[in-house]
Each structure stands twice: as structure tokens, then as C-alpha cells.
Design brief:
Strand content: 15-25%
Largest sheet: 7 strands, mixed
Strand order of the largest sheet: 3-2-1-4-7-6-8
Helix content: 25-40%
Radius of gyration: 19 Å
Low-confidence stretches: none
Structural class: alpha/beta
Mean pLDDT: 93
Number of helices: 12
């Protein structure tokens, strides 16, 4: 009986990407031998649930069902509108469906690609009462002219965070299940009480309740889009790529990945055609360029190259000097 689990939480919208990533975990021998691969399904009907078990149980993926009523806020409650669905809050209820046998959890978002060895992350044991996570890349924007950084600073301050390096991305996490049983309800309660502070939903709430109780992971385990934009991928050699923001690799072929991962999703749907209706592979416009005016385009041409170079220097220094548990 395994006491370690790699856990995904998904609704129908991120079902296929989550399965793709789960299969990539299974391809790593250490991961599949040391941990169960678990997908928590939010409001998935019984027929689809059974189909998924028939297809993927033999490969080593375990499924549990979670009802959205366990975590969704009341009707009409404020939820900042972004590309992120309300079911993102589901990870705050995963302890309600996971068996007691699990002690150590590595949580992974579905919009990722596993491109390197994640064994060190799986072997790491997070201290009781703490969470392990990667610092969100927004800290690279500190000092930029314009409106973004003051707004982000005010947002963090409202959560009780003054140092931008203390703010983490919640897409890849590690923790003890007993810690999650205690702290996830606190995070959900924080979100319910202060929804206007939680611009990034459960990530905001988790940062608020775990502030001062985090173990810092290297960005190689959560190489988010802001890091990837710096064109240091070959130098950094990330192990988990995280497609933060609205541009996802199954419907966007532009930079920084330029369609590199699109074939992976197409191959999955060719292998499992019964799941084709759950992922639209038609390419879309860059979410960041929609509606840009002349001023924006000039800024992108003249200002962004300078910013990018400055951020490269900062990221290199952070990787060289940062104190990471793994």
C-alpha cells in the first residue's frame, strides 16, 4: 500500500490535459513505483467516470469523484473573472475524497508538461504544517514602469505579503495530507470571507493562510510562462513546464513554445478518440495580443526587450543563489 500520491483535480474542461500529464508521470519509473497517480474528477457523470476507469485503471491511474457542492461558494458570491474556472477551488476539497493511506501529496495542475525527472520532488518530505511551492514569477516585474507592479503589490499586501519572493504559484504543490486537512478548509474560509482579495482565487487564499509556512521549490519544478518568455529554457532545463495564463499549448502555437507540445495532445486524442469532444485543438489568437492598440504595440517593440533582458539577469541570479529544498 503506497503512502504517496501524485494528485490532479479536474473538471471536464481540463480532463484531457490532466490525463496527458498523468500518463507522463507514469512514464517515470520512480514516480509510478513510489506513488499512486490519482485524478480527482469534479462533477463527472457516472458513465464517463466508468469509461475513464476502463481505459486508464489498467495503466495505473486511480479516479475519485468530487461533487462541486463540497467547495463552490454560494450563488452570486464574487469570483474574479479570468480564464480560470470556479472548479479551481476543488483542490481545497481533495482531502475529502483521498483515502487515509496517503501521507505525502504532490499536487499538479493539468495545464503542464512533464519534461524532466521529478523524482527529487517526489522524494522530498514536506514538514508538518508547511507547503512546498515555487515562487510566482511576478517578482521579476518589480520596478517596471506602468500600472501592473503597483497593482500587484497592493494585491499582495492585502493578503499580508510584503516580500514578492514570498508569494507562490499554486500549480505545483507538495504537502502532507494531514496538513491539507487542517489548512485547506482555512483557505476556503478565507476565500469565502475575502473574495475581493482573492484575485487569483484559491492561489490567493493559499498564499494568505500559508504565509510564513512555505518550503521553496526551484522554478525547474514549475516553469511558468513568465519564466519561459525569457528564452532561458535550454539553460535552465526545467522539469515541469506550466502553461500559466490564457494561452494553452493545445490551442496556441505562438511563443514561447511555438506549437512544440501540440502533437502530444493530438496523439492522445488519436489514441483515445472517445475523449475527443473534451479538448478543442483549433488554434486561437494570442490572448495577450487581443485588443492591443498602437501604444501597446510600440511598448512591446521598444520596452519589452529591455525588460526581458533585465528579467533574465534576475532569474539567473535567483537560480544560482536561491535556497531551494529541491
Amino acid at each position: 500500500m503506497k503512502e504517496n500520491a501524485v494528485v490532479f483535480v479536474t473538471d471536464k474542461g481540463f480532463l484531457v490535459p490532466s490525463l496527458v500529464a498523468a500518463l507522463q508521470v507514469l512514464e517515470q519509473r520512480e514516480a509510478s513505483s513510489a506513488a499512486d497517480i490519482v485524478v480527482v474528477l469534479i462533477d463527472i457523470d457516472q458513465g464517463l467516470h466508468q469509461t475513464l476507469e476502463r481505459l486508464f485503471n489498467p495503466l495505473g491511474i486511480i479516479f475519485f469523484a468530487l461533487n462541486a457542492s463540497e467547495f463552490l461558494p454560494s450563488e452570486g458570491a464574487f469570483f474574479n473573472k479570468t480564464h480560470v474556472p470556479k472548479t479551481t477551488l476543488g483542490r481545497l476539497a481533495l482531502h475529502k475524497v483521498l483515502p487515509d493511506q496517503y501521507v505525502n501529496i504532490v499536487y499538479l495542475d493539468g495545464d503542464i508538461q512533464i519534461v524532466g525527472d521529478i523524482g527529487p520532488l517526489l522524494r522530498h518530505r514536506v514538514a508538518a504544517g508547511k507547503i512546498a511551492a515555487v515562487t510566482e514569477g511576478n517578482w521579476l516585474c518589480e520596478g517596471d514602469m506602468g500600472h501592473y507592479w503597483p497593482k500587484h503589490q497592493a494585491y499582495m499586501t492585502a493578503l499580508g505579503i510584503t516580500d514578492p519572493l514570498d508569494y507562490f504559484n499554486a500549480g505545483i504543490l507538495a504537502f502532507r495530507l494531514d496538513t491539507w486537512r487542517e489548512m485547506a478548509p482555512r483557505a476556503l474560509a478565507y476565500f469565502t470571507s475575502y473574495p475581493e482579495r482573492c484575485l487569483y482565487h484559491d492561489q490567493s487564499a493559499l498564499n494568505a493562510v500559508f504565509h510564513g509556512h512555505r518550503e521553496c521549490l526551484s522554478p525547474i519544478y514549475n516553469y511558468a510562462s513568465l519564466y519561459a518568455d525569457l528564452n532561458l529554457t535550454a539553460e535552465v532545463s526545467p522539469r515541469i513546464i506550466h502553461f500559466t495564463g490564457g494561452n494553452k499549448p493545445w490551442h496556441y502555437g505562438g511563443p514561447p513554445w511555438n506549437g512544440r507540445f501540440l502533437t502530444i495532445y493530438r496523439t492522445f486524442l488519436e489514441t483515445y478518440p472517445q475523449l475527443a469532444s473534451f479538448l478543442d485543438l483549433r488554434l486561437r489568437q494570442d490572448a495577450r495580443s487581443a485588443g492591443l492598440d498602437l501604444k501597446d504595440l510600440i511598448r512591446n517593440r521598444l520596452v519589452q526587450p529591455y525588460r526581458r533582458q533585465r528579467r533574465r539577469v534576475r532569474l539567473r541570479r535567483y537560480l544560482a543563489e536561491g535556497k531551494f529544498v529541491v
